[in-house]
Amino acid sequence: MSYEPPSYGAQPTTEPEGIPVCPRHPDRVSYVRCQRCGRPTCGECQRPAAVGIQCVDCVNEAQRAMPVQRTAFGGKVQAGGRPIVTYAIIAITALTFLLQFAVPGLQRELLYAGILTGSEPWRMLTAALLHSQGMIFHILFNMYLLYAIGGMLEPLLGRARFLALYILSAIGGSVAVLWLEDPRVAVIGASGAVFGLFGALLIIMRQRRVNYTGILVTVAINLVLGFIPGFNISWQAHVGGLIVGLAMGAIFAYTPAGPRRATLQWAGIAVVVAALLVLTYLGWIMLPSRYLG
């Protein structure tokens, strides 16, 4: 009599052969098959298609193969077209405004003055999140303009380009304050960033041959208000933000379409960043000679 030792290798399956299971979830039996690849797909992996059901893998593959739709200025077309970045900036700015009342000293820690450039340069951006606590119209007016112009520009430019425009315009306003204002004078507000949006919108409307007289008049009126005593408006921030916005608007509007458009646009944005860095450095090192010499 022969003896065969028990096998400790593969264990016999407990499921009959031929029962279809989901490739992503082998423990789930599924008699529903993907209309594209024919594999079984469980309820979690099923995606409704024009005809029948497709599995999640086939849907993802089809989305990757689909060409990305672009706007006339190179921005990615977003489903629904909602200006998410605009809404986010408004929410963050509104929250910061409330925190100015709840957190003592917050405004002092985030405002910008030229004399603080060398030690705390981040204030050149954080000042755009602050607004006057004694004048609610300040934040309401800026956020209304951001909502109105952002709702037009963000879908055209795409989220990344729009965010770059807003941030660099805010910094551009601070750079102008560094060069044109007494370095001991503190400034707050998103006006420089908003004027950057105005500047970009002017260039884009001109490039598309749309009547921009109304926008031009609005910009001119707000610039003039900055020079009237008693309004306590930083015209320097307005001018700086506007110049940056005009420059970036020209980059977005006049970069030729083609496969290299995005690369050229971001290269242009890098040039704007470099120019702001150089102007900030020169403005800082020249402060003693301009105000103490």
UniProtKB/TrEMBL annotation:
The chain crosses the membrane at residues 84-103, 123-150, 162-180, 186-205, 212-231, 237-254, 266-287. GO terms for biological process: proteolysis. It is found in: Membrane. GO terms for molecular function: serine-type endopeptidase activity. Residues 1-21 are annotated as: Disordered. One of its GO terms (cellular component) is membrane. Keywords: Hydrolase, Membrane, Protease, Transmembrane, Transmembrane helix. Pfam families: Rhomboid (PF01694). InterPro entries: Peptidase_S54_rhomboid_dom, Rhomboid-like_sf, Rhomboid_protease_S54. Gene3D superfamilies: Rhomboid-like (1.20.1540.10). Residues 120-253 form the Peptidase S54 rhomboid domain. It is a multi-pass membrane protein. It comes from the Bacteria. PANTHER family: PRESENILIN-ASSOCIATED RHOMBOID-LIKE PROTEIN, MITOCHONDRIAL, RHOMBOID PROTEASE. Belongs to the peptidase S54 family. This is Membrane associated rhomboid family serine protease. It comes from Neomicrococcus lactis.
